[in-house]
Amino acid sequence: MSGSRPEQATLTKNNDLSKSQQTSDTIDNMVDGLNDHDIDNMSRFFSESFRWMGNAGCGTKNGLREFQDNWQRPFQAAFSDKVCIDEARITQGEWCAAFGRQEAIHSGEFMGIPPTGKRVEIRYMDFWKVQDGKIVDNWVMVDFPSVMQQLGVDPFNGEGWEKLDAES
Length: 168
Description:
The chain is α+β, with helices and mostly antiparallel strands.
């Protein structure tokens, strides 16, 4: 690339590094709340106006109410006995990133797929911004295509790039 370059990392430019422990504590407690399925009390961890920005198939939720009603409740209706397991977290100042999985039973309709009763693994990545002990922004990637494949539906109609992988 020649010429001027785009500015990088603008969202973390003014990151307050003294907030690392507070951020870590907020995320620890929030994940416990998720595992307790405590949807109605998420205001302990999320600001009322927080933004949840997901990938295609997940959507964007503006505010805690939208997150509860248009993500948490439908997700819990589709997947019961759900447990969230962060496999890795990196916290720096007001920011925390994690990846991991949720393990659950497919007990309700999901993406038009009727309940199968199958145990599924739902992979995810999260980036949270925490201010004053509450999550204000959450960028999310949830691997719904993998979940669909676990339920017997190929969302890529055989055209997924896995076909390009070297076979073991």
